[in-house]
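Our consortium's second objective concerns turning raw sequence data into structural hypotheses that experimental partners can test. To show how far this objective has progressed, the report includes one record in full. It was chosen at random from the queue rather than selected for favorable results. The single chain below, 202 residues long, was entered without modification.
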Amino acid sequence: DLAYRILYEGLDIGERLPAGHCDIPRLQEGGVDVQTVALFIQNFLYPDNCAQQAFALIEATTKAIEENSDSAEIARTGSDVERIVASGKIAMPLAIEGGHAIENDLDLLRQFYELGVSSMTLTHNVTHGWADSGADEARWSGLNDLGREVVREMNRLGMVVDISHVSDETFFDVLEVSEDPVIASHSGVRAINPHRRNMSDE
């Protein structure tokens, strides 16, 4: 939750931080050349204040990375990652965690993309206006019509669809709709650990 700490603690990621696991010195020492920065949107802010928090996290994180431009750079695409890493810097893609951030509005999705967000988990732990979460009661039996539009628009923009946290039904609906590959950024398999975030063999 590096972005959270940047925004609410005013941390300089170019310095070795007194707590936590991630800062530029640690990434360099560990040989990490790509670090996705998760912009986690608090579930209790849905439906009215999610976008406000997302904008604040994007602004603070972008500023923090720009202030350390000799060591890191925001990456929007795979080509960006290759270019940034080849230059000896750390590539830092921005990822929204929780599709409730767009407050059921495709225009907000487009704005986040324009500001540098390159991927989004469709849900976190709340079922919202267009997709069911794996940690909440189902409302839509997966994706509803707006959810399908969100996935199509993410494909059109070139924004990566992340299915960690979604319900099984949402997972299969996404695969049916998406024309691009999707990712499970922090999910495993239930055969090993039956956690709600993990996926069945199917």
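The partners drew two points from this record. The mean pLDDT is 97. Residues 113 and 159 are 7 Å apart (CA to CA). Both points have been shared with the crystallography group to help prioritize constructs.
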